[in-house]
Amino acid sequence: MRTRTQVGIVGAGPAGLLLSHLLALRGIDSVLVEIRSREYCEARQRAGVLEDGSVTLLREAGLAGRLDREGLEHGGIYLQFDGERRHIDFRELTGGRTVTVYAQTEVVKDLIARRLADNGAVEFGVTGTEVSRLDTGQPRLSYTDASGTRHDVDCDVIAGCDGFHGICRPAIPAGALTTWEREYPYAWLGILADVPPSTDELIYAHHQSGFALHSLRSLSVSRLYLQVAPDADIAQWPDDRIWAELSRRFELPGWTLQQGPVLDKSITPMRSFVSAPMRYGRLFLAGDAAHIVPPTGAKGLNLALADVAVLAPALVALLRGDDTLAADYSATCLSRVWRSTHFSWWMTTMLHRSPGADEMEAQLQLSQLRYVASSTAAATSLAENYTGFAIASRPSGSA
Fold it and tell me: Is 295 a catalytic residue?
């Protein structure tokens, strides 16, 4: 079946869904395709700390109704090391900026509900997705829908929002991209637990046995992480062992880690990855399709939203005959991407114990943590990076 749209979008994660919505606000048609089912997209567990600018972006796009009711605004984090827990006060250090705990799962649910309510063209459960003719003025998005019908969609532009393992970045010819990558010698074992959080704000714990993070999803559900080996077998981590190790790494006199039923558990490898440029012909990459950061700095979701905030007005202008913003898209986004990549690397290497590291490295990490906790300048740098810098473009107004 041959059809046509202005923008073909691959991937129904936060980047693809938000892009489809922002384009619709500007009167631009799109077709969005996703290989997973709607149920899968709305159930997969992902991190959920929104920068100050991300919250503003979602509000201005008319997508923050449930976020404002259920999101938990946080004014700082705790750093725990050497038997102490120190608070980093974001509001004081940044002139009032905060972050909001609201799971990526919930962001995706909100976006899907809005796109379907607006009769957006969203296809779940597709197969055989291909993008072609990317260096022409009319690229093509091809896929087979859930009923078995094959579609060839002629587009003005294609947006690859299909993640690190998607098909869009590999469709770019060899030699047209430069990539940088680092794999870390550890992974995160994460659990979602049906128990009220034992903390009011996130705890980042450096421990001689490895890193631990106490996050939360709501006032009744906790999200916790342990540093484990990258080849760790989830079957070797029964619930009792997980809780015992979490309790050991968070242990402080007078403080108790509350335990409860584990609803979900998984192991996530740690990687930094950047691909440039984020445009090839009429294909634009956004989110994890172009860059990956370790989750320590809570940047992955926020980078995806920031990319799209830049991409949406750039595509509108391009479709109206002005390539200026589109030509600058990659450089504009990569400036933020590299800043966030460095921050995520810094947080990760400061807090995790490297396998085989000697006591010298351990003391250097402790020295860095003490400096961050005691220096206003160092704490301000952490707070500014964690809460995020202003997103370049907003959804309101015309391009």
Answer: yes
